[in-house]
Amino acid sequence: MPIIPALALKATLTNPTGALTKLQPLRDQTLAQLYDLYKNGATTAQRAYIDALVTSQAQVRNISQSLLSALSSIKDNSAASQMLAAVTLIQMNVTPVVAVHVPFGGDNHRDIGLATETAQTVSGVATLASLMQQLSAAGLSDQVSFMSLNVFGRTIGPSTTDGRQHNPNHQVSIVIGKPFRGGVVGGVAPVQTDYGATAIDSKTGQGGASGDVHAVDTLAAFGRTMLAAVGVDAASIASDIPMGTAIPAVLA
Q1: How many Cβ atoms are within 10 Å of 215's Cβ, its own excluded?
Q2: What is the mean pLDDT of residues 122-132?
Q3: The pTM is what?
Q4: Which of 71, 109, 211, 241 has the fewest CB atoms within 10 Å of its CB?
Q5: What is the largest CA-CA distance in the chain?
Q6: How far apart are CA 144 and CA 200, in angstroms?
Q7: pLDDT confidence of 53, banded at 50, 70, 90?
Q8: Does the pLDDT at position 242 exceed 70?
Q9: 1: pLDDT confidence band, cut at 50, 70 and 90?
Q10: Per-residue pLDDT tens over the stretch 6-48
Q11: Which sign does the torsion angle of CA 49, 52, 58, 61 carry?
C-alpha cells in the first residue's frame, strides 16, 4: 500500500502557499494542450485517459471547504494527525480502506520496566478513543470498521519486565464496528516456557483446548471472519483464503 504521511496529504489537497500551488495554472494549460492534441487523432482510450485527469482535478478542487479546513489543522504526522486525516478521507469517499500506524510499544526488546510500552499503550488507547469520537461526530460510526492485526506476539511471562521478545505462539487483534459483537475471543495458556494462544470454539468464541479452530489456524480464521464482516460472499472468501474457518461468534 502507498504511504501518504498526513502532512503530505495536507499539502496535496489544501493548496498551501508555495511553488506547487503556483504550478496549477501550468498544469491546466498543459492538460488543455494535450486535449487539443488528442481531440482529433486520439483513440477512445486516450481521450478517456485525458478526460479522467481533468475530472479528477475538478473533483479535488470541489472538495468541501470544511473537510479541507480539517486537513489544514494538521501540524505533524503523529497518530492523532493520522486519525484526523483518515476520518477526512473517509468523508471524502476517496478510498474504502485507510491504513494508520498507532504505536503500542513497538520493537521493545530493551524497554526497561516496560516504560515505553506502558506510555504508548495509554496514548494508543486514547488515539483509538479519539477516532471513535470523530467517527461518531461525523455520523460514520455504523459505516466504518476499525481492524488491527499484529504481525506476531510478544513474550508474556513474568521475566519480561525489561522488554519483550518475539512470541510465535501468540498475538492480539482488535476490531471495532457495527458488524462485530463486543467481547473477548480466544484466550491464553501456558505454552513451552511462556504463554500462547489457545484454540477457539468458533460457535462461542471461547478459548480452550477443545476449540475447533486450532491456534495455528487463527490467522486464516481472522481473515475469513473479517471478510465475512464486511460483506464479502462465501465463494470469494473461500477462494482468497482456502484454509481456516470464520468465527460466527464474532459477528453481530
Answers
A1: 20
A2: 96
A3: 0.77
A4: 109
A5: 75
A6: 26
A7: low
A8: yes
A9: low
A10: 988 887 777 666 666 667 677 677 877 777 776 677 788 877 8
A11: negative
Alpha-carbon gap, residue 187 to 239, rounded angstroms:
29
- How many whole angstroms separate alpha carbon 115 and alpha carbon 133? 27
| Distance, CA of 181 to CA of 174 (rounded, Å) | 12
Distance CA 109, CA 163 (A): 5
Confidence category of residue 167, pLDDT binned at 50, 70, 90: very high
Which three cell numbers, joined as nine digits, stand for 129? 478513543
Contact 197, 170 (CB under 8 A): yes
Which H helix or E strand runs over 189? strand 188-191
**Please, are residues 203 and 248 in contact by the beta-carbon 8 Å criterion?**
yes
CB-based contacts of 77, cutoff 8 Å, min separation 6: 5, 6, 7
Q: What is the DSSP string of 1-60?
A: -----HHHHHHHHS--SSHHHHTHHHHHHHHHHHHHHHHHH--HHHHHHHHHHHHHHHHH
The DSSP code for 68 is H
Single-letter amino acid code for the residue at 41: G
Q: Residue 220, Cα to own-chain centre: how many angstroms?
A: 18
- Phi-psi category of 18—alpha, beta or left, where left has phi over 0 and alpha has psi -120 to 50? left
Whose cell is 504526522? That residue is 77
Place of cell 481473515: 223
Question: By C-alpha distance, which of 116, 97, 92, 115 is closest to 106?
Answer: 116
Give the H/E segment covering residue 249: none
**What is the overall mean pLDDT for the chain?**
87
